[in-house]
Write a sequence for this structure.
């Protein structure tokens, strides 16, 4: 069984989503199905078919999330003490082409959200930073070409 790395915060977010889908969303869908059934002929009942489709999606998502949580290797970044970039690190970088400063945290696949400054451990930028120290240059090979970033700061919180 392949382990799925995720931060403690990411695991908690997935647990909350599963709880919501089971305790709130599932009963809402069941109610929608019951209401649609009361309208009669199910073969031509669009509300019934839509509710059943939503039920399938919801149950599939619950199964997927529970599988990921079951295989999770939960890592608390605040417990890491390393000079090098590893999973969970908050990394401040300088783009050597533009001089712009960017900051990212390396997280699990399901936690990544570039708008929130989190990048997946499998992303090109994260892979280029793993094992590097402050002052090292990370070369990111992306579809748009190579970019170079100098690592300015590494922290775990």
């Amino acid at each position: 069984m392949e382990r799925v790395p995720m931060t403690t915060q990411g695991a908690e977010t997935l647990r909350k989503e599963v709880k919501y889908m089971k305790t709130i969303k599932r009963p809402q869908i069941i109610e929608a199905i019951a209401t649609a059934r009361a309208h009669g002929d199910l073969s031509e009942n669009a509300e019934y078919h839509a509710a059943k489709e939503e039920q399938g999606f919801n149950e599939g998502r619950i199964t997927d999330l529970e599988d990921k949580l079951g295989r999770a290797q939960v890592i608390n970044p605040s417990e890491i003490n390393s000079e090098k970039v590893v999973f969970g690190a908050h990394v401040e970088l300088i783009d050597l082409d533009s001089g712009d400063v960017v900051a990212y945290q390396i997280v699990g696949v399901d936690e990544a959200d570039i708008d929130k400054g989190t990048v997946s451990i499998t992303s090109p930028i994260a892979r280029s930073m793993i094992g590097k120290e402050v002052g090292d240059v990370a070369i990111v090979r992306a579809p748009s070409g190579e970019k170079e970033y100098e690592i300015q700061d590494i922290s775990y919180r």
In short: DSSP finds three helices and seven strands in the chain.
